[in-house]
Structures are given as structure tokens and as C-alpha cells.
Amino acid sequence: MEKPGEMTTLSRVLEKLHEKGFDHELKMSDHGRLQNTDEQKIYNPEDLTIIKTYRFEGESDPSDSSILYVMEDQDGNKGYILDAYGAYSSHEEAGFDEFIQKIKVEDREDQLIFG
What we know:
It comes from Chitinophaga ginsengisegetis. This is Phosphoribosylpyrophosphate synthetase. Strands 3-2-1-6-5-4-7 form a seven-stranded mixed beta sheet, covered by helices on one side. By secondary structure, the chain is an alpha/beta fold. 19% of the residues lie in helices and 32% in strands. Strand 2 (34-36) and strand 3 form a beta hairpin. It has one domain (10-105). 15% of the residues are buried.
């Protein structure tokens, strides 16, 4: 059995998250809040908790670096946000960085997420 610490690629972590019900990608809405695009649910920062953050670095190109935020809402619904890391951020929406910084962070152990 693969241990969570052995998941070194973005695709492998996303695959394992999907197996555990983290199926919903959250994106910035036109209203400057995050939205679960599957259920059309809109979130304010206080509605969410970042339960884990993964950073992946490209082999040779810094623009290949990415960050994955694993989220949970107040009702226990699970989702994620995928973004390029740092100056290469793929979120051009105004306020994305400020929104993310306002979300409570609870860095859970991999065993609690994947166990």
C-alpha cells in the first residue's frame, strides 16, 4: 500500500483525493468569492478551512510549480483549489490571494485525510 508521503506528483495526489471524496474544484466567482462549480455553492473565507496544502515543483521550469489547497466547508463538503505557484499564479481574478489568506488553516496529517 502506498503511503501518503510517497505521493510526489500532482496527478497522484489528485487521484488519491478523488478516491476520498475530494471531487469538487473550487473557483473564483464573478462575485469575488469561491464557488463549487458542481453544486453552484458560493463560499466566503469564513465558510472554508484549508486542511492541507501541497506544493509541487517543476523539474526544470519554475512556471511548472503548482500549489494544491485541500478544503473543507462547514458542512463537511470536500474540495480543492489548484493554482500555479507564486508569480506564475493562474488566478488572475482580483482578490484571489487576499481571499485565500483569509481562510482558516488547519494543517491535518495525511493519515487523517487519506486514512
